[in-house]
Task: inverse folding
């Protein structure tokens, strides 16, 4: 750590203030303020004296106080499900890049899929006066945000819509993507297809299940209750669900995994089984092409989701006041091998 | 969006203030302040009137102004290399969990390995008065931080040490881990081993290269210049480097990949070649065990790195003033197949 500064103007436990700078430079406080804010009305000599004092004291402008006076904090909040989930990484970075282009800092945190934690985090961000919010909702009731929105905090929801309020949302076509993925399996001959998804209260999990049911129905296929499992994406639960579907009285010949977390565990379980089972996963994962067989996925564009949401947010902050809109981005089926395995026959 | 509120007290473009609450409740401002801050001296009836006014107006305490008066912002900054890199995900989350346990918000951003961007981000965080900083440094000169540290912003560096200043640092044993990984290849018969790492100015890249040279020297093996390549981790550059080492006059029989980004590309290149080439990568990656062959890695514990750094930061913020220390966490070699392939003989 740097040595304790022996200069009398610099009190160890306090930052140098503009008053300290004024005293050292032998000028008035207003003069220092003009120099710091780049305002005219200061002779070059005086400006140099002030800059030297700033340099010598290590003075740094306090933007917290300054932004309070101007009304904007130049920061936005991003509430994700899980900072460690690789799916959110590109979304996080895309939002950060848009924020940076607008001179704003990004504050982010995870809700861990807990509606109470989401609310706590969102309100903490509002209490710190973020200019705008991008929220991946964990809960289904966002009326708690209405006072903030009314007070001018622009809010855009991502990945899932807001609950019980009208707000901008940017998301992927979960229903259509899942339907296409399941139809792909049906097209390769499968009749008994399992669906393993996230917690039932999560919007995307439901939409993808809806897509599964739509594809089965459109093909005139019944969907056995034993072939559908929604719940935690923890490896233990998913392993149990996949295993039950493979060993039950009506074993499946294919599995549709509802998101990247489920897919990773499903790949592991299937790799340990002798019988080949087809697999399509929602969300692409790193190295999917290097697995044997290569992984067939319904891919989202997390970068585009993040960028679209952030662009929308800054247009709102710049004054756009059109009605809240829902922007749905298409998914993309990438066939690499696992989804084209035919139904196993003994 | 919520309908414009017609209540006269709520001006659409302004937040309700404590004065608005006082007016609505018919009490003095000090009384409202006591209720908001949970201080004694307010009768239950009066408190209820104030709470009802707060509720009706949608008043929310302004923590920005409040924390300025108390001196702490209850926020810490985290500067990473890249928010989208899966390696940093667990580190990010670990820091966030420690911060949350201390009631602090986490503000993070990426330096994109650019020292200028790192400095800009760090100073922006300081200007917003974060209580502490966790920095994965991109640059090698951190004297610009001395005034901030002197003013009380606790700072802990992670993954690589600070440059030219004395500060807490938590990192993995890059040198020892790389040495162990290369020795592992030597132990399986390899004499011609390639090293592909990140940009030469990055501390971890250098430490791992040092470990490579140490292992080669300890085994009495020369290290041909053509077997060492440091530079961008972009797939194009890494592909070129790996290919050159496999097709050169002294082709390598094994490759040591300096980090997860290099490993991912190396796996791809080697998968497309006929000749089996051994591979050990620094950093574990998802699904490493499902590749064929399974990937042998020298693994770091990103979660432990993040948690250790954050714990250290909060102990500093709580007043610990022992000398800055360097905490080095051991790595762990995980043999899964790719590192045990013997040298190919035609």
Result:
């Amino acid at each position: 750590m740097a040595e304790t500064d022996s200069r009398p103007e610099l009190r160890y436990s306090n930052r140098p203030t503009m008053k300290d700078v004024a005293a050292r430079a032998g000028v008035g406080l207003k003069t220092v303020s003009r120099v710091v804010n780049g305002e005219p009305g200061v002779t070059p000599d005086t400006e140099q004296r002030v800059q030297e004092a700033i340099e010598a004291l290590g003075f740094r402008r306090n933007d917290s106080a300054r932004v309070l006076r101007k009304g904007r904090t130049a920061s936005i909040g991003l509430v994700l499900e899980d900072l460690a989930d690789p799916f959110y990484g590109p979304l996080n970075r895309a939002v950060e890049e848009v924020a940076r282009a607008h001179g704003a800092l990004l504050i982010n945190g995870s809700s861990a899929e807990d509606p109470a934690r989401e609310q706590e985090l969102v309100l903490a961000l509002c209490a710190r006066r973020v200019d705008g919010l991008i929220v991946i909702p964990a809960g289904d009731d966002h009326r708690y945000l209405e006072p903030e929105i009314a007070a001018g905090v622009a809010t855009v929801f991502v990945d899932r819509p807001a609950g019980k309020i009208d707000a901008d949302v940017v998301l992927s076509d979960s229903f259509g993507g899942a339907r296409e993925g399941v139809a792909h399996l049906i097209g390769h001959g499968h009749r008994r297809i399992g669906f393993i998804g996230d917690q039932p209260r999560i919007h995307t999990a439901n939409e993808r299940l809806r897509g599964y049911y739509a594809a089965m129905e459109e093909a005139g296929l019944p969907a056995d209750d034993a072939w559908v499992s929604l719940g935690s994406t923890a490896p233990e639960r998913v392993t149990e669900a996949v295993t039950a579907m493979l060993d039950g009285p009506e074993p499946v010949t294919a599995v549709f995994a509802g998101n990247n977390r489920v897919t990773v565990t499903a790949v592991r379980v299937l790799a340990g089984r002798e019988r080949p089972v087809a697999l399509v996963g929602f969300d692409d994962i790193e190295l999917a092409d290097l697995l044997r067989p290569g992984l067939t996925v319904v891919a989202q564009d997390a970068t585009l989701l993040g960028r679209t949401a952030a662009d929308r947010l800054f247009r709102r902050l710049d004054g756009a006041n059109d009605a809240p809109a829902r922007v749905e981005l298409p998914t993309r089926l990438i066939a690499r091998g696992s989804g084209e395995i035919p139904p196993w026959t003994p």
